[in-house]
Design brief:
With about 160 residues, this protein is an alpha+beta fold. It has 4 helices and 4 strands; from the N terminus they run αααββαββ. It has a single domain, classed as 2-Layer Sandwich (Muramoyl-pentapeptide Carboxypeptidase, domain 2). Strands 1-2-4-3 form a 4-stranded antiparallel beta sheet, covered by helices on one side.
């Protein structure tokens, strides 16, 4: 992946620590309340996901879900921004099911955590909408912190 925006921070580059990001999330939750913070962080994530797809010149190039998984994995995973790992994308009826791992939002959470993965969910949501051109509803439907085998983001058509 190219170094997008390094001219904005020439000495430190594109990355900062999860510790700082989580402090911002908790601070936003404390200031706004959990529900309002979730809305704000999800919207910010969607904007980031759409912007990333646009910056990479990939808008509208993701109708093939295997190709979309590859593109998103490259952009968001270990060779990209390191927001999360995309382990798979599959069609489940009309829904798109995305298997994710190592999400920045859930880093450091204890087993049994009820935290929702708002920013990362939003980023995948925005990226999927930009890649596919479809309007979608998003839900963090399964969480390994709550005993599920994987973290699953479920995207349903929005009418």
């Amino acid at each position: 992946m190219s170094e997008i925006g390094t001219d904005l921070r020439p000495r430190l580059g594109n990355f900062n620590s999860i510790v700082c990001f989580k402090a911002a999330v908790v601070g936003i939750e404390n200031a706004l309340g959990k529900r309002a913070a979730t809305v704000a962080l999800t919207a910010a994530g969607r904007e980031r996901g759409r912007g990333l797809v646009e910056e990479l010149g990939l808008t509208g190039q993701g109708e093939d879900l295997q190709h979309a998984a590859s593109l998103m994995s490259a952009a968001l995973g270990p060779d990209g921004t390191r927001l999360c790992c995309i382990d798979g994308i599959e069609l489940d009826g009309e829904d798109i099911r995305v298997v994710v791992a190592d999400t920045v939002c859930m880093a450091g959470e204890p087993q049994g955590s009820t935290r929702e993965c708002s920013f990362t969910l939003g980023a995948v949501h925005g990226a999927l909408e930009a890649l596919t051109g479809r309007k979608l509803r998003a839900k963090h439907s399964e969480s390994r912190w709550r005993g599920d085998a994987n973290d699953i983001f479920l995207f349903s058509p929005r009418v």
